[in-house]
Amino acid sequence: MGESVAEATITNWLKEVGDKIEADEAVLEIATDKVDSEVPSEVSGILVEQLFGKDDLVQVGQTIAIIETEGGEMVSVVKAAATSEAVAEVTKTVDAAKDSVATPADFSDSDKFFSPLVKNIASAEGVSVDELEQINGTGKDGRVTKNDILEYVKNKGSQAVVAPAKTVEAPKAAQAAVPVAKKEAPVSVNGGDEIVEMDRMRKLIAGYMVASVQTSAHVQSFIEVDVTNIVKWREKNKNIFEKREGEKLTYTPIFMEAVAKALKDFPGLNISVDGDYIIKKKNINLGMAASLPNGNLIVPVIKNADQLNLVGMAKAVNDLGGRAKAGKLKPDDTQGGTYTVTNVGTFGSVFGTPILNQPQVGILALGAIRKVPAVIETPEGDFIGIRQKMFLSHSYDHRVVDGALGGGFVKRVAEYLEAFDVNRDI
């Protein structure tokens, strides 16, 4: 599954017991928290045993099937492979990320700490705060883990937890205040309406978005950019580029190159937060939000983006984008991002206020490029001309990024784009 993935869910067995399997042939399909992929066999033989069933959660390093090779040897070859050291490191990172998240207001009456994942599961399954407090946690300092809450939900029907009522003394200044119960907005369903359950990925995305808003103080900065030189350069070189490299030349790699440069100038955006500590990332790994054919969203990552030239960036963008649409991304392709870029202009949007991809502290939305009248300054005076312009919308985490840093970063991106050399070689 890759060293940066800790666990996965088996979504489908492609081979049954007794089936013949060739080396490198897909045996089953798995799903991590961000991507689905197939697990191939490392040897040829006969599948003699499936150690896990569909929808089972498998930890990295566990054997999930046994194959008998032609020599009659029983080989445990189909594994979610990764070293124990990698698993420990991933687990440590996940725990640290969970510990750094502030408790949402819905759980403010509780004296216990619950991670966003636990709270999301509790909300989805209708588990109250009082019930959560009665669960015996197996995590650090008795904290409730994902497995604890899932086990509780599984057994909830057979054993109910009756929590004692909590008495909270209101502050003197608020004695006269009348408490208002939180109510969910009623959903009206008519006879002709269709009710469709969210698929697995949409449920995960919904949980991530809510958790991100509850975790970070989102704030935005916007700036308009003149990209006329970029449009002219691309029109002049796109056919030459495609003929020479066998790759289409879009605007995305040009924008990604400018973002990578700006992150080197403003490393305060290439960070994540761990409780009261800031983790400064050494590598610049750019996430590239991509829409899937089913309408869902995924964010593959361009690793060490600052080390790529424009040709390398174009190949990376096209490769990840193509495999995302074809559903062929590997789990590692979506791991390790330090900053994200999303192109809302693809859908004609001029602005966007994107939600942070946790635990990152910044995300940039690229608006649509439009022809607009603009004032052009020349030594002979000002005049009105038609220019190609777009807006950059920068969302950042105000817990650790102030306006000077967030605004300065997006301004630097704009400066790189406006200074693009129209005579640049490819």
UniProtKB/TrEMBL annotation:
GO molecular function: acetyltransferase activity; lipoic acid binding
Source organism per UniProt: Flavobacterium gillisiae
Leading EC class: transferase
EC number(s) per entry: 2.3.1.-
Family statement: Belongs to the 2-oxoacid dehydrogenase family.
Cellular component, GO, one term: cytoplasm
Listed cofactors: (R)-lipoate
Family annotation (InterPro entries): 2-oxoA_DH_lipoyl-BS, 2-oxoacid_DH_actylTfrase, 2-oxoacid_DH_E2_comp, Biotin_lipoyl, CAT-like_dom_sf, E3-bd_dom_sf, PSBD, Single_hybrid_motif
Complex formation: Forms a 24-polypeptide structural core with octahedral symmetry.
Every Lipoyl-binding domain range: 1-68
Segments forming domain Peripheral subunit-binding (PSBD): 113-153
UniProt xrefs under PROSITE patterns: BIOTINYL_LIPOYL, LIPOYL, PSBD
Acyltransferase found in the keyword field: yes
Keywords carried by this UniProt record: Acyltransferase, Lipoyl, Transferase
Protein name as catalogued: Dihydrolipoamide acetyltransferase component of pyruvate dehydrogenase complex
Keyword Acyltransferase: yes
Signal peptide boundaries: none
Pfam families the record matches: 2-oxoacid_dh, Biotin_lipoyl, E3_binding
